[in-house]
Amino acid sequence: MLTKRIIPCLDIKNGRTVKGVNFVDLRDAGDPVELAAKYAETGADELVFLDISATEERRKTLADLVLRVAEKINIPFTVGGGISSVEDVDILLQNGADKVSINSSAVKNPQLINNLAAKFGSQCVVVAIDAKQIEGKWTVHLVGGKVPTELDLFEWAREVEQRGAGEILFTSMDHDGTKNGFADEALAKLSGMLNIPIIASGGAGTMQHFTDTFKNGKSDAALAASVFHFHEIDIPELKHELKKQNIPVRI
Question: Active site at which residues (predicted)?
Fold first, then answer.
């Protein structure tokens, strides 16, 4: 049985790690390279870096950060934020990233998923989907959750898989930063209909929430930010608890 993965997420703005609630009210959470090294040492299975600042210098700054992180850690890491071309991905992978995450650019240009999968392989293409429930329907949002689309979460997820994505990172905007648990019902539906791994994101607050998303949400990995950054949950303790619950994890 494949082990379940624990993935700290580092939202990057102006070279610093930040964290908010429901995608707003950002506060500083530290230096991303130092945090990355600490997480690699304490048992994180992978890391995700999302650059949420959109400056002209962003691409070069992000590539430099990726290089600095790659020198410090020995676990896979995914980089996202403003990636919109094969060239963007080429630079990040050359600098040491293992995977890239695309979100708004995939919705605006779905062919990008096909192009990236064809050039770099599905295993390094993660499509991030941010969605919230509107009148009972999970609606995909763009630009850090600010712009609603007409897309249905499940229809878009199926298309993403068909186009060659290797993984889906699903963030429930309704749950993000609330620490009330992951959107396990939606996650279970995604896992049941797709053949690629699903990463749960948005809502981690307790160790039980991780147990729940692996058991009830059928998630392949669970991503969280503030509970790790601010030492509310310790990854080694979390993994021992998951193991006690008969959830396969790498210790």
Answer: 11, 130
According to DSSP, the residues that pair with 24 across neighbouring strands are 21
Distances (CA, A) of 120 to 111, 123, 195: 14, 8, 20
Q: Which of 51, 88, 130, 212 is catalytic?
A: 130
pLDDT, one tens digit per residue, over 89-104 is 999 999 999 999 999 9
90 is catalytic: no
- pLDDT of 179-200, one tens digit each? 999 999 999 999 999 999 999 9
Catalytic residue, candidates 11, 45, 88, 212: 11
Q: Is 11 a catalytic residue?
A: yes
Mean of pLDDT over the chain:
92
Distance between CA atoms of residues 210 and 242, nearest Å: 8
Dig out the tokens for 222 from the structure.
Answer: 């669970």
Please count the residues of the chain: 251
Strand 221-224 versus strand 24-30 pairing type: unpaired
Q: What per-residue string of b and e applies to 12-46 under the rule 16 or more CB within 10 Å gives b?
A: bbeeebbbbeebeeeeebeebbebbbbbbeebbbb
**What domains are there in the chain, each with its CATH number?**
5-244 (3.20.20.70)
